[in-house]
Amino acid sequence: MIGFADLDAGNKEDNMSMNWGMANRLARIIKPEDGRAVMLAVDHGYFLGPTSGLEEPRKTIEPLMPYADSIMLTRGVLRTSVDPKSDKPVVLRVSGGTSILKELSNEDITVSIDDCIRLNVSAMALSIFVGSEFEKETLVSLTKLVDEGEKFGIPVLAVTAVGKDMARDVRYLGLACRIAAELGAHIVKTYYCDDFEQLIESCPIPVIIAGGKKTPEMEALELAHHAVTHGAVGVDMGRNIFQSDCPVGMIQAVRAIVHENVSAKEAYKIYESSKGAKQKRAAG
Ligand code: 5RP
Fold it and tell me: Which of 40, 42, 43, 132 to mutate for ligand 1's pocket (most ligand atoms within 8 Å of CB)?
């Protein structure tokens, strides 16, 4: 019997029907102790190039690693910028093939399952573009990836990418999340929105939220707090951490919200105190 009963994040996963490797990898991402997850997203360069704050990935990633449960990134950044002796679970971005200069939804699978296994990844992440020009192709890619993942016990994280003309509302995001779940994704990443509980209710797999564009620290912490109190299992946050004036303070604050259920105000104090300490160190 598989002993990851708490992994199911509200009975959303039937771990008994999962193979051991799949359940074990999922438990590395969504912590069985509380069914929550802090994922650090640093995969932005796969279509944005040298994103602000990620110009030198190793410098950004290293100080943040101790506070993340897992790290989401591309294989290029993994190989060049993460110590292979690290035991941090890797969520590998395996979709891409586009840039901000062209139609973003025209993605394909860009990493073979063999390389995912070689890189010892804990999950594979792929974007789906529901409502966009290449909706069908990205959804079919998701099903192909799930088939590969099922063979080798590697879970799939579907990222509900939002097309230029799509509203980030519960109708649209709920549709995208439900389709991801129906097609076999094991976790889905989306955006927080009004009536988020409806999205959670209609999505039978664990949901994590992206942080989105950089906002003031308090706003980002409120977003994380709303998301987990309304049913998300955690966050996969990037820009609101690494573009902050105190990235370590921000990830510590987000972690406290996700794993210690602190309020956004309490979390903000954690961020401020870390920022104060950083300023003191800089002043010598
Ligand atoms: C890009 C992604 C990013 O990982 C995602 O957007 C999370 O980062 P952020 O918190 O900066 O939005 O999947 O498609």
Answer: 43
